[in-house]
Amino acid sequence: MARRYGDRVALDGVSFSVEPGQTFGFVGPNGAGKTTTMRIILGVLSADAGEVRWNGSPVDAGTRRRFGYMPEERGLYPKMRVRTQLVYLASLHGVVAAEAAADRWIERLGLGDRAEDRVEALSLGNQQRVQLAAALVHEPELLVLDEPFSGLDPVGVDVLSGVLAEYAATGVPVVFSSHQLELVERICEAVAIIKDGRLVASGTVEALRGTGTGAIRVIVEGDPEIDVPGARVLDRGPNGWVFEGAGSDAILDAARAAGRVSYFAVERPTLADLFREAVK
Ligand SMILES: Nc1ncnc2c1ncn2[C@@H]1O[C@H](COP(=O)(O)OP(=O)(O)OP(=O)(O)O)[C@@H](O)[C@H]1O
């Protein structure tokens, strides 16, 4: 898809697909076009070119009513009480048992004590939980969240990642943007990396990280010197030594000669490494 704002190109040929039940991370530097893409998926914004398909067919308004969206600008009614708000949103989406649905998500997100509070009186993290409940209360068939983890404390991060994983496990694709790459690497099966409105990489985290860089990290108890003939030392610090340019047998033999080997593994690039490489 493509999209301009005036003569600024926000998206230029971004294309990717998300599988049922997949947690999909959407990453890229500030201004890369993540929010624009999500708005187009949800139909809040139209694309200048391209289309959004759902189960192979172009999405229409009826399909989009079954999507759930947590926008970056967080669209809650500040004066409305948490429970009232969720019941209202559930009914808007046509949920028959709106009250039961609201209560279920209030419970699941640990908002029981806050259900009768006005949204504006909640802490930022709790407002975020309500916002998530608002995106989930009609049990959407696709969940799209714009930076849902920003501003959450570690417990909030755990609650949210648990909810997202559980929800994806029901077969629903869960797409979210984030700048927290370690988190994305930990909870996402697949990612798309965009920069300046273009897709620079996409696929499963496993495939993108590949089978290895050819470098090997080894830790020997007591951290003695390890001499591997012919190898380059890429790193040496509290997390051991990283060698490149020698066979794994040669490295292991040298490590054993130095002492008791407590760690030995092929190095793989992290998502953060891939990101830095991709957006260079
Ligand atoms: N309403 C708008 N009018 C003009 N330009 C816009 C508008 N919305 C976004 N842009 C521009 O489009 C580009 C993509 O913005 P977008 O918000 O999609 O990026 P993003 O990847 O979500 O960024 P961030 O990580 O900072 O949230 C940016 O250059 C931005 O300045």
Automatic annotation (TrEMBL):
ATP-binding among keywords: yes
InterPro entries referenced in this protein's UniProt entry, alphabetically: AAA+_ATPase, ABC_transporter-like_ATP-bd, ABC_transporter-like_CS, P-loop_NTPase
- Residue span(s) of domain ABC transporter: 2-221
Q: Which residues cross the membrane?
A: none
List the keywords (alphabetical): ATP-binding, Nucleotide-binding, Transport
Q: What would be an example GO MF term here?
A: ATP hydrolysis activity
Give a Pfam family name: ABC_tran
Taking the record's annotation, the residue ranges forming a coiled coil are: none
PANTHER family, sorted: ABC TRANSPORTER, ATP-BINDING PROTEIN
Per the similarity annotation, which family is this? Belongs to the ABC transporter superfamily.
Protein name as annotated: ATP-binding cassette domain-containing protein
